[in-house]
Every structure is written in structure tokens, then in C-alpha cells.
Amino acid sequence: MDRFSFLNAAHTQFFADLYEQYLVSPDSVEPSWRAFFQGFDFALEHYSDTDNAGEQLVVYANSDAGTAATSEKLQKEFNVLKLIDAYRTRGHLFTETNPVRERRVYSPNLDIENFGLSTSDLDTVFDAARALGHPPTTLKAILAHLKNVYCQHIGIEYMYMRTPEVIQWIQDRLNINDNLPNFNADEKKHILGKLNEAVAFENFLHTKYVGQKRFSLEGGESLIPGLDAVIDAAAEKGVEQFVMGMAHRGRLNVLANIFGKPTQDIFSEFDGKDYDKEYFDGDVKYHLGLTAERKTKSGKKININLAPNPSHLETVGAVIEGITRAKQDKYYPDDFSKVLPIAVHGDAAVAGQGIVYEIIQMSQLDGYKTGGTIHIVINNQVGFTTNYLDARSSTYCTDVAKVTLSPVLHVNADDTEAVVHAMLFALDFRMQFKRDVFIDLLGYRKYGHNEGDEPRFTQPVLYKIIARHKNPRDIYAEKLITQGIVDAAYLTKIENDYKAKLDENLQASRKKDKTIITPFMQDEWKGFVQVSDDEMLKRVDTKFDRKKLDQIIETVSTLPADKKFISKIQKIVTDRKTMYDNNTLDWGTAETLAYGTLLLEGYDVRISGQDVERGTFSHRHAVVKVEDSEEEVVLLDALKGKKGKFHIFNSFLSEYGVLGFDYGYALANPNALTIWEAQFGDFSNGAQIMIDQYISCGEDKWNNQNGIVLLLPHGYEGQGAEHSSARMERYLQLCARHNMYVADCTTPANFFHLLRRQMKTKFRKPLVVFSPKSLLRHPLCVSTVDELAKGHFQETIDDNTVDKKNVKTVVFCTGKFYYDILAERENLGRNDVALVRIEQLFPLPVDQLKEIIASYPNADDYVWAQEEPKNMGAYGYMLMNFDLVPWRLASLKAYAAPAAGSHTRDRRRHADAIRMVFDKNLFRS
Predict the structure, then answer these.
(1) Which tens digit of pLDDT belongs to each residue from 294-350?
(2) How far is CA 892 from CA 482, 869, 870, in A?
(3) Rounded to an integer, what distance in angstroms lies between the CA atom of residue 446 and that of residue 220?
(4) Pick from 250, 243, 233: which is nearest to 198 by CA?
(5) How far apart are CA 350 and CA 400, in angstroms?
(6) pTM for the model
(7) Residue 826 CA to chain centroid, in angstroms?
(8) End-to-end CA distance of the chain
């Protein structure tokens, strides 16, 4: 059958319409049609006299010219165009990018015979070369160009991108010098110098600290000259700050040879010395971060940051994006390009860890974008012991890049010039288009997962090859010696000079008794101090001028008169003023007023999470929509005299990535109240790694303070197992010494002061708040204006409604359960029961509790009451920390799930727990 017979069946208008689409955007049409139209354009230019393209197209499509071509020459021109398209689309599959393995075989390959061409055509001149930006030239020259551009030591994937201007930019850039590096002699010597540092550093550690874990960069040392080149070139393009995240592989090398960390400090860490401070416990050497000032070759000073991270791979990627955005918002709100994030991945992790997908999905969202990230994969081709064929289903470990249509450059890590060339391409792309770009640095891992591991257990063939393989420095040095740029004596000198410097620093290091850990980004934390839990319990002045509160309430209760809003929104907004005037402020109003006060005082506020603009339970309405246009109106933005900025963003449906981002944001801007709110409290367990590895212990491990606030809706209201508990017990289990605050407030005023306290201290601690659901509209859960203006945060709230001499039972509780117990006490008329609210669970206000207990002279029954099952909630924590008096428990029995699915069963159990408060004989073990 004629392979073009499908053309005869198509309607002529279809051709005309599709051709019009092709003329506007060639890449918007299907590749085979694009090739067909390219052939038609060629025929129209060289073989037609008519100016009527539309008519000519129909003729071309329905004639022998369109099906078999008017001549063999035209058909072969058409075939060359398809060959060019194939190299652009599939050339990356046939590159020389693997330094230690043969590439997998892909079919069909790029042999010219697969495109209707033969060796007899090699000397034929083809006009199709114009598609490459070249004048008409021979097929041999076209092939040489295509192989150089697409099939040497750099392979590039980009033809899936949908913007013609971007594709053209890439093609124009690739065509320069056939995409081959072109460095002068001085540049090559500088590259060799950085490569020598990378190799010599690893060799030195390997001989001085035999068998110690260091997660060496050997096999990927070309990363060092690549990063060096990117930082210097970016500074010339106006970048002023770099934020980098990477796992442990190669981290020490990067710290020493890019960030300039004193090797004396690194050696002290290898020697296992104790730290110079008692209040933190530190971390292993290959997890630590650093901030430094670096001077480029041209004399420019730039701020460079390497974020600390745990062993949990890829988590730091979200953190550095948050750090970057905080710096951009604070210093460069009109030009995000001034701060450049660089994320260094491992091949197994970038393919296997789901957070990478979350981070990529964030990259173009208004609340999370950072103007493009350079992603660099140190591709060892092995994940711990797992071969790459078992580590992913995709062709490449970088295929996640296609989610956002980001270009990917696959580079042979043995070709250091190609690595630097690719890095500079990536930088230019990011600066031009403000989008992500990926570099797959294909190398190997000289040793096992760590230096004490035996890789031949699982990859014996590969490691025989690696054992015989020269390192990148020696490969590059031989090349430069052959080119006459350096000689063997030059190489020996730079190696000996660097080693002598390391030896000198090692000796100096061993004269020191302690290891010094420099806090990350300490330039952002000037004026802040680190404190103990005693300091955390001191009262903070959070009062606020009543007249300024009057001003804020006017702003947040007044909608723009020239815009139309739905009636429900009008009522919700105007009700704020009504409540204020009536002295009965609900939760949402007090919260909004808290943000307003901080903005007037010069603090920024950032709130992020699922549905936070309105609030999951429709209480916040920080952003309201115009009825007819959905234009967004943020009433706090209209606050006169505000010195801070208000940012609130509905996040995409992620917990892990978004909380990591917001943690990074808070880390970089301690003067911004940074809040992450879970849709329901237990959804936070999707971000458990961020909570366990960063929030609860970042200060203890890395000497970094952080003021991130977690709002976790919590409360048992019959909504089932997944919408009741924020898993209070998990956070309380993490509490120790001075690591964070945990609170469960019962009044709008106390929440108001809690938020204000978070900014008014001279230190920062993470704050976990078990926030309400039903209390948002509970008639008793209201506060007066004076309680906001003149009050303070109350760690405990005593019961001032009872005669203390008559009290026999003192009940300690927290959160919503107070109101449930209060209702039952009223129902029973039990004036001998006092309800004491513990508003702050950690640090536990022990001294305040002692005073409260002493104020009930006749009490002989003490109760800890909770609505959660016995094995959940605060019971275990209180059992360990609250021993001032003997007390009994009033709660549900232990259950596997937090709550019953049946509403009837749930309410029955809830009522049983309340009855236990008032009847000690119902106590169950």
C-alpha cells in the first residue's frame, strides 16, 4: 500500500486548516504532519510559481507530488528533514555519555538507511541544511553537525517542549560550535585546577581516614569545576545569592572546594571531637550546611548557602526552594533571578522519591515559584546496591523533568569540559526563561555506598571496570598535555601544593580540642538568641493599642464599594465589625486582627496550605472573590500604615513538599510569621519526615532556629477516623528540652496572643497548634476586645467560675474537650468540679500548675481528661511529665483508629469519657 494513501482520504479543508495551524506554531502539530508541511514548504519555495499557498497545498496533498514527491531530489530533501528531526528528538539515546558501561540499544537507530537515504547521498548538497541554520551543504556535513550536537558527550532532551521560541533558542544555542566546548588555555587550566582540588581532596581523606564514611565524590569530581563555573558566570549575570541543597554524596568536597569551608573544621569532624557548645548535639559531618561569601574571578562578592539536611534523600529540595523564595520576597521582589537555587540529586533518589515530583509541581505556582532551579543529578548508576534497571521504570532517572517540560542535558562526567559547557547552558536557560533545567551527570561511584561497603557483592562486573578506570583529572590532564597547554611538571606541582595545604590544615586541626559548628545563614539571624525552656516560659508582652485595633477592624470588615460580592461574603465580612462592637470576637476575627497587628509592626505574614485563603471550615476569608469576575481582594492589603507584607496562598494538594518549602521560608526570614495549615490535622502525617527530621530537631542537630507555625485542625466531632485527631501524641513525643512550642488554645484571645508571641520574642521556636473546628463558631468561644488589647498569652487558664473552697475534683484538660465537659457540668449542676485548661502543653508550665493546685485547698480528686483514646492524645505525655499530684484518667479506651466511623458509636464513646470525669467509679484501666 502507498504509505501516503491516507492523504487521499482527507478533506481538502482539513489540510488548509492544519497548515494554518502549522504556520502559527509548527510544534503544535503532530510530528509527521510537521515533517509533511516542511516538505511542502520546500516544494513551494523551489518548485512552484504560484503565490496561492492554500491552493498549492491542496494540490500537493492530493497529487503525485504530495504522495511520492515530484522528484527523487524532493523526496530526499524531505527525508533529510526527517533525519534532522530524528536527531533532535532521539539523538540523546545514541550518545557517548556513559563512561563505564555500554549504552542500551534502542531501535530504530539513526542510520541514514532508516530515512530513505544511502551512502551514495553523502556528497549530495541538500537545501534541508537550512533547517539547521546552515546554507545548503552535503549530507556528510549535515550528519557531522548532527552527531556533534546530539550524539557526543552531551545528549539533550527538549523536543517535547511546547513553546516554539524556547525550542528555537535551544537549537540556536546548540548550533554554536556544534555544541562543543570552546574554552581558551587559561580557562582550561582553571578547570584543571578545580578538578585537581576535587580529586586530591578525596585521595587525601581516603589515606588519612581509612574506612571512615565520607560518601566520596570519586567518579563525579567534574561536579566541582561545573559548580565553580556556574557560580562565577551567574554572578556576572546579576545573581547575588545562591541556595544549594544536596545529599551526602560529594558534600564534603563541595563544602571544601566550592564553599571554602576550612578543612581544619572538616578534619576535626572526622576526628570525632566534641562541639564547642553544650546546647546542641550536632550531626554527622556530611549533613552539615554552611553560608559563605565568595569572591568571583572578576572580584564580585556573592552569598552562597548550602542547606543542612538529614539522610532522608530529596527532602532538602523543598527546603531550599522555600529559602530561595524567602530571600526573593525579602530582598528582590521584582527580580527573582537574583537568587539562584541549585538542587543536587542522586540518580536513585530523583527517580524514586515522590517529593521530587511535588517540588517540580510547585515550580510554576505563584506561591512557590523561584524563577527556575538548576537540577544536577550525580548519576552513579547504582542506588546503594540496586542497579539502575531495578531503580526505575522510566528510561532516564530525570524523566520527572518532563512534568514541567524542562530540558534535560545528559553529560559524560569524564568529559569535564562538556560538564562545564552543559552547566553554563543550564544557567543561561534558567536566566532566560525562569524555568527549571536538569543536568544528568553520568559517572560512577568508585567505592560502595560508603567507603566501608563492598560493591563487588552486587556489581562485580561493573566494579572490575571501575577499578581500571582513570579518574577525570588524569583524563583531562592527558588531554591538556596533548594540546600543549600544561605539562607533567605543572600537574605534579598543583597536586603537591594542594596536598601540602591539606597537610598543614590537618596538623593545625589536631591542636584544637573542640569542633566548631557555624550556624547556617547566621547573617539572617542577627539580633536573635538561643534560649532554654525556662526562657520560653517567660511572659512576653503581646498587648496592642486599642485605637490601632479599631483601625484594623474597619479595614477587614469593609468591602470595596465599587465591587459586587455574594451576599454570604458581605455578611461574613461585615459581621466582623458587629462582633467587635458587641465585644464578642470569634476565632476567625481574632486571627485576622493578629495578622493585622503584626503587619503594622513591620512583620511579614505568610500563610500556606490547602484551602487556607478561605479556610477549610470557611472561617478565615483572607481572600474574597468579586462575584462577576473572580477578582481576588485581600482586605489586609488595604491596611494603612502597614510595614509588613501579607502573603497567603492555597497550596496544591501536598503536605510533604509544601511544609518543607514553608520550613525553608521560615529558616530564611525570622521576621516573617510563616504558617502552614493542614486541611485536617492528621493530614500532616503526609509530611512526617519534615516534622521528625527538621522541625523537631533542626536546632539540636544544626544549630538553626526556626519559627514555623503548624496549624493542625483537631477535635472529636463525629467525623470519623481521618478527620478527628491531629495525632497530638506524636508531636508531644518529639518534645524535649527547648525544641518547640505545642499549644491547644480554647479562646480567640489566647490564639491572638499566641501568634503575636511567635514574633515578639528574640528567639524562634517551631509552634505546633492544635487548632479548632467546631469552636470556630461555638457561642461560648468568644473574647472581648480588651482581652486582645490588654491581655497576654496564658499557658494555663484557671477556673474562675467556682468557689475554690468547695472544689473536690480538679480536672485538667485541653482544647475543645473543655467546652464539652463544661456543658455536662452545667447539666449536672456540679459546683464541686473545677476545670483547668492547659493551653500550652510544651514546655509544660509546671510552676503555674503548682500555684493552681495549691489554690484548691479541699480538692482530693485530680483528673486528666481527654477526648482521644487512652493510647493517643496527651495522656502518655502527661503521665511522664505531670507528677505534681496523683491523678486519674478520663478518656476512651485504647483503640487502633483515632475515632469510630459510626457517628452513633463515636458520640456514645465521647459521652462515656465525659461521664468518667464526674464519676471516679467509671475509671477503666
Answers:
(1) 999 889 999 999 999 999 999 999 999 999 999 999 999 999 999 999 999 999 999
(2) 80, 4, 6
(3) 9
(4) 250
(5) 8
(6) 0.92
(7) 50
(8) 83
